[in-house]
Write a structure and sequence with these properties.
With 165 residues, the chain is an alpha/beta fold. The chain has helices at 3-17, 38-41, 46-59, 72-81, 101-110, 147-163; strands at 20-26, 62-68, 88-92, 114-118, 140-143.
């Protein structure tokens, strides 16, 4: 084995054994989950979704650090702060998905693998929701599966982090 192959092999083993850390960001109005339009967003509260994410993260030997904010700057600062603290980002930017160049630029700037999730299928909703500023800088997007969108997004992100070269 060459030195380069040994180093790469050791990095894969380290990522496999270590607990990965994922920043989970919830955008505006997601603090109202469980009350706000349950026909669209479901009946689970944000606290319940975070609890399910923590349970799933344990199964995946990962850890999640959830944060919800209605303020764009707080979300941008959190993305910047993820450098050196987290290996990836799971984000439901809410309405900022369709409006925030600042969030898009922050994600591109930190260059951490990011998965975009949405509870509802944004492509079956109003036309303005069909465009995402986040999708072009994310490794993937999952929408339309309710809370499963978050869990599938976390699984995909952890899988990506453990298997990237």
């Amino acid at each position: 084995m060459t030195d380069r192959a040994v180093v790469k092999s050791l990095k894969v083993v380290a990522l496999t054994l270590e607990s990965l850390s994922v920043l989970v960001l919830h955008g505006p109005n997601l603090n109202l989950l469980g009350q706000r339009e349950p026909g669209i967003y479901g009946s689970l509260s944000l606290a319940e979704i975070n609890r399910l994410l923590e349970e799933e993260a344990k199964k995946l030997q990962a850890k999640v650090s959830p944060l919800q904010s209605n303020h764009e700057g707080v979300l941008v600062d959190s993305i910047h702060g993820a450098l050196g603290q987290h290996e990836g980002i799971l984000i439901n930017a809410g309405a900022y998905t369709h409006t925030s160049v600042a969030l898009r630029d922050a994600i591109a700037g930190v260059n951490l693998p990011t998965v975009e999730v949405h509870l509802s299928n944004i492509y079956r909703r109003e036309e303005f929701r069909h465009d995402s500023y986040i999708a072009p800088v994310a490794i993937g997007q999952i929408s339309g599966f309710g809370v499963q969108s978050y869990l599938l997004g976390l699984q995909a992100l952890v899988h990506h982090l453990r298997n990237k070269s």
